[in-house]
Design brief:
single chain; 228 residues; mainly beta; Thrombin, subunit H; four-stranded antiparallel β-sheet; globular
Length: 228
């Protein structure tokens, strides 16, 4: 959307239900709330009248510019991430390897037997979607790639990779115990990112800068900017 049109989602305190808030350029306001049993975990949109939010137990809501409405996902897993490249090309992923795709009319299951928790998600087109995933034995994490037909392991040699973002098919960044870059042919380890000991999110700015939120070793909250 834009500087005067941003959305954030989450849950009310004491497990009272889900929450959607909107930024209009000057302040955040509550846009919608709903009862438990689920919370919302992520939101993404293509336009001011096309915003998606995903949450627990397969919950999906859609904003059409007037109201938030539930949309059937076809899954019961907790959905953690949603992103896309067009109104008819959107992905949502989550627990248990859940991976579903919106084609403009309905959500369909494209998990392909991944079988383990998907942590972060980014894609550039119908045949180029990356996701980080928790290793089935719980000791680390891996990365998988969707080529338009199936998911395959295709990540950098980082046993703790958890975050991913990108700007193009040949410009993708992954962060875990180290920072790695995909140039379209292979992964390359980059100089260390600022010392965010527990990164929570990674964003690639259009100019090429990387922004990381998380926590420092000596503080609870941190925001770092890294210029490749």
């Amino acid at each position: 959307m834009g500087a005067n049109d941003a959305w954030a989602v989450g849950g009310l305190t004491f497990h009272q239900g889900w929450l959607v808030v909107h930024w209009d350029g000057s302040l955040w306001e509550v846009a919608a709330t709903g009862p438990c049993p689920w919370f919302l975990n992520d939101a993404w949109g293509t336009a001011e009248n096309d915003v998606w939010a995903v949450g627990d137990e397969g919950a999906i809501l859609h904003w059409d510019g007037t109201r938030w409405s539930p949309v059937a996902s076809g899954v019961s897993a907790n959905l953690q991430k949603v992103c896309g490249v067009a109104p008819d090309d959107i992905w949502a992923t989550g627990d248990g390897g859940a991976a579903i795709h919106w084609d403009g009319e309905r959500w369909s299951d494209e998990s392909g037997g991944i079988g383990f928790e998907l942590l972060d998600l980014w894609g550039s087109g119908p045949a180029d979607v990356w996701a980080t995933a928790r290793d089935p034995d719980g000791t680390g994490s891996v990365m998988v790639h969707w080529d338009g037909a199936e998911w395959t392991a295709a990540g950098p040699p980082d046993p703790y990779v958890s975050l991913i973002c990108g700007l193009a098919p040949d410009d993708v960044w992954a962060l875990g115990s180290r920072l790695s870059h995909w140039d379209g042919a292979g992964w390359r380890e980059e100089p260390p990112c600022p010392a965010v000991s527990h990164p929570h999110s990674l964003w690639c700015a259009p100019g090429g800068d990387l922004w990381v939120t998380g926590s420092w070793a000596t503080a609870s909250d941190a925001v770092a900017r890294w210029r490749p």
